[in-house]
Write a structure and sequence with these properties.
The protein has 309 residues and is an all-alpha fold. The chain has a domain of 212 residues: MetI-like fold, CATH 1.10.3720.
Length: 309
C-alpha cells in the first residue's frame, strides 16, 4: 500500500508540470496586456512598457515559463497577484475553504439523493419509480448549472421569497447553491448506482443469501450494495473533484467568495498568476481526491487490498 501511494505521488509531478505548461501557455497567448489594464487607459506607452519590464512580461515565452517553474519547484512560489500584490497561495487559501464547503455540500446532496434512488430503482426495475427516477436523472444531467441557478433564484428568491439569492454565510444561504451544484452529480450517481446494483443483484451469492432466509434489507445493504460500491465510489470521487473546479459558475451566480469567483475576476483583470495558481491548486486537489478514492477501494473490497500488497 505504501509503495502504491508513493508511486502515485511521484506520478503527480509530470501531471502538475503538464498542467502548469498548458495553463501558462493559454494565459501567455490570451489577448490583453496586464500592465495596460493595471495602469488604466490614461497611462502613456512609456509607463506601460516600463511596468511590463518590471513584471517580466517583455521576456520571451520560454524564459517566463522557465522562471515560473524554477520559482514553483525551488521556492514553492507561484507568484504574486498583479492587482492585490498578495502572494497567490495566500489569496487562494483565503477562498478555498468556501469552495471546499460548497463542493462538500454538493456531494452530500448528490449522495443523499443519488445512492438511495439508484438502489430503489435497481430493486424495482421497470416500475413507475424506476422510470420516473431515470427521467429525472436524464433531466439532471442535461440541465446546465448556470440555468438551474438562475431559475432557482427567480423561483425561490424573487417569486416565493423563501431563500436568499446571494452569499454563503448562513445555512439558508447555502441551500440554493448546494442544490444547484449537487443535482447534476446526483443524476450521474443515480444512474451509476442503478447500473452497478442491477449487475450485482443477479449474482449467485445474492440468490444464496435470499435462499438462506436473510431479510431483503440485509441482502441489499450488506451483500449487494457493498459489492456495488466500487464504481459508485469512483463516480463520487470524480464528481467531488469536478465540483471543486465546476463551482466557478455557481459561485459567480450566487456571489460566493470562493476560488472559482476569484479566478473569474482574475481572468477579467488579466491577473495571470491568480489564474495559473488557481488551476494548479485545483488540479492538485483533484489528483489527491482520486488517490484517496483508490485507497478507499481497499477498505471496501478486500480483493483490491490484496492486490496492493
Amino acid at each position: 500500500m505504501h509503495k502504491y501511494i508513493l508511486r502515485r505521488l511521484l506520478l503527480l509531478i509530470p501531471v502538475m508540470l503538464g498542467v502548469a505548461f498548458i495553463v501558462f501557455t493559454m494565459m501567455y497567448f490570451t489577448p490583453g496586456d496586464p500592465a495596460a489594464i493595471m495602469l488604466g487607459e490614461a497611462a502613456s506607452e512609456h509607463d506601460v512598457e516600463r511596468l511590463r519590464e518590471e513584471m517580466g512580461l517583455d521576456r520571451p515565452f520560454i524564459v517566463q515559463f522557465s522562471t515560473y517553474i524554477k520559482n514553483l519547484v525551488v521556492h514553492q512560489d507561484i507568484g504574486r497577484s498583479y492587482q492585490s500584490k498578495k502572494p497567490v497561495v495566500t489569496a487562494i487559501l483565503e477562498r478555498f475553504p468556501t469552495t471546499l464547503k460548497l463542493a462538500a455540500l454538493g456531494v452530500l446532496v448528490a449522495v443523499l439523493l443519488g445512492i438511495p434512488t439508484g438502489i430503489i430503482s435497481a430493486t424495482k426495475q421497470y416500475s413507475i419509480f424506476d422510470s420516473a427516477s431515470m427521467v429525472a436523472a436524464l433531466l439532471g444531467v442535461s440541465m446546465p448549472n448556470f440555468w438551474q441557478g438562475l431559475m432557482s433564484i427567480i423561483v425561490f428568491s424573487v417569486w416565493l421569497g423563501w431563500l436568499p439569492s446571494s452569499g454563503f454565510s448562513t445555512p439558508m444561504h447555502m441551500i440554493l447553491p448546494a442544490l444547484t451544484i449537487g443535482t447534476s452529480s446526483a443524476a450521474i450517481i443515480t444512474r451509476m448506482t442503478r447500473s452497478s446494483m442491477l449487475e450485482v443483484i443477479r449474482q449467485d451469492y445474492i440468490r444464496t443469501a435470499r435462499a438462506k432466509g436473510q431479510k431483503e434489507f440485509i441482502v441489499i445493504t450488506r451483500h449487494a450494495l457493498k459489492n456495488a460500491l466500487i464504481p459508485v465510489l469512483t463516480v463520487v470521487g470524480l464528481q467531488f473533484g469536478y465540483l471543486l473546479g465546476g463551482a466557478v459558475l455557481t459561485e459567480t451566480i450566487f456571489s460566493i467568495p470562493g476560488v472559482g469567483r476569484l479566478m473569474v475576476d482574475a481572468i477579467k483583470q488579466r491577473d495571470f498568476p491568480i489564474v495559473q495558481g488557481g488551476v494548479l491548486f485545483l488540479a492538485i486537489t483533484f489528483s489527491f481526491m482520486n488517490l484517496l478514492i483508490d485507497i478507499l477501494y481497499a477498505f471496501v473490497d478486500p480483493r483490491i487490498k490484496s492486490q496492493y500488497k
